[in-house]
Amino acid sequence: MENSAFSYKCAALICVSMLILLILILQGPIVTPTRYQIMADQRSWLSIPNAWNVLSNLFFVFIGVGGLWKLSRPRHLNGIHVNHPK
To answer: Which pairs from 60-64 meet CB under 8 Å and 24+ separation?
Structure first.
């Protein structure tokens, strides 16, 4: 019984995802004004244009890698090893 409920949820998620993808494909390109691409800090550093706008995102890379590392480690709950659901 539990297995069929999971498959319905999975099928619903796939259907909604495919519907959103179809809507985005039919929408076409989203046009943005040219001034949208103008960065606040336009200085270059080590041949990287808009360097500080780019380098400020490294914080998010470190947080993401740390999160993936934490998720990849085995979990323990009160000394009991907890496996991922299959």
So the answer is: none
